[in-house]
Design goal:
binds 5,10-Methenyltetrahydrofolate; 6-stranded parallel beta sheet; 3-stranded parallel beta sheet
Length: 297
């Protein structure tokens, strides 16, 4: 079998288009644009690239983008003061503080300061709790994007065996909860799991989110599995290359021969993360403006 390539980039483009159309409707109804504030502390080059592409995508979708770039030695008090200012700003519907923060700043304390109703990353404990008990809030962008790809491809997930590899608060845990809500039978595997290949072999759906280049091998997969690769790892440069290639957590070339469908890296889950961020921001805007959130969002 040659697996179908799940084109996250194309799916994300469609989602951004739909969000853009609804953002225009929002502007007519609310008399203002939806707004996303992105805060970047320090000069990490990879973070700068992400923040720039978020800004471009936000503006392209007809929303307002507020960028705040702070020096690497910003104090926690100054960062918290900025978050408070954004919480109070009626033009700001969503707030994203780019993680990881420089070492002297406490990620959790900063996330806790963001108003849960503007926490479009879905990282605040209030939103994690809402997801855990089935209340509506904000769901982290990467796992929500993975669910969109899965349900688009498989429809009803009821009774399917899903194995999530990785237990982070940002991907693994919320991913498992979304799969459970969709009636899949869910296993969360991690670095201490015994016989990981044997566990993965049961899975109709594999979500790999461990951050180890090409760790998941073709031989681990059940025939016809659907594979969602969340990893983005840069390999060391080969001879004559300036930068190493980007690869996922799954050995794509091998998995292609066993899986029925698989997301590539790049062009799979990554673009979905940004598209869902815009989606969450528009949802926040409707809610903050006291307007009904359109069903198709
Ligand atoms: N508060 C916060 N929220 C985040 O959502 C957040 C964050 N901090 N810190 C960093 C990570 C990483 N992240 C990505 C988003 C898009 C791509 C993406 O679009 N990747 C493309 C291109 C990859 C490339 O060429 O570098 C792809 O996979 O095809 C990747 C990674 C969001 N993050």
């Amino acid at each position: 079998m040659t697996a179908e390539r799940i084109d996250g980039k194309a799916f994300a483009a469609l989602l951004r288009e739909r969000v853009g159309a609804l953002a225009t409707q929002f502007e007519h109804k609310a008399g203002r644009k939806a707004g996303l504030a992105v805060v970047l502390v320090g000069e990490d080059p990879a973070s700068q690239v992400y923040v720039r592409s978020k800004h471009k995508a936000t503006v392209a979708a007809g929303m307002e983008s507020f960028e705040h770039r702070l020096p690497a030695d910003t104090s926690e008090a100054d960062l918290l003061a900025l978050v408070e200012q954004l919480n109070a700003d009626e033009a700001v519907d969503g707030i994203l503080v780019q993680l990881p923060l420089p070492g002297h700043l406490d990620d959790q304390a900063v996330i806790a300061a963001i108003s849960p109703d503007k926490d479009v990353d879905g990282f605040h404990v209030t939103n994690a709790g809402r997801l855990a008990v089935g209340q509506s809030g904000f769901v982290p962008c990467t796992p929500l994007g993975c669910m969109m790809l899965l349900t688009d491809r498989l429809g009803d997930l009821s009774g399917l065996e899903a194995v999530v590899i990785g237990r982070s608060n940002i991907v693994g845990k919320p991913m498992a909860q979304l799969l459970l809500d969709a009636n899949a039978t869910v296993t969360i595997a991690h670095s201490r799991t015994k016989d990981l290949p044997g566990v993965v072999k049961r899975a109709d759906i594999v979500v790999a989110a461990v951050g180890r280049a090409e760790m998941v091998k073709a031989e681990w997969l059940k025939d016809g599995a659907t594979v969602i690769d969340v990893g983005i790892n840069r390999l060391p440069p080969a001879e004559g290359e300036e930068k190493g290639r980007l690869v996922g957590d799954v050995d794509y070339a091998g998995a292609e021969g066993v899986a029925s469908a698989i997301t590539p890296v790049p062009g799979g889950v990554g673009p979905m993360t940004i598209a869902v961020l815009l989606r969450n921001t528009l949802v926040a805007a409707y809610r903050n403006a006291g307007l009904a959130v359109p069903e198709i969002l």
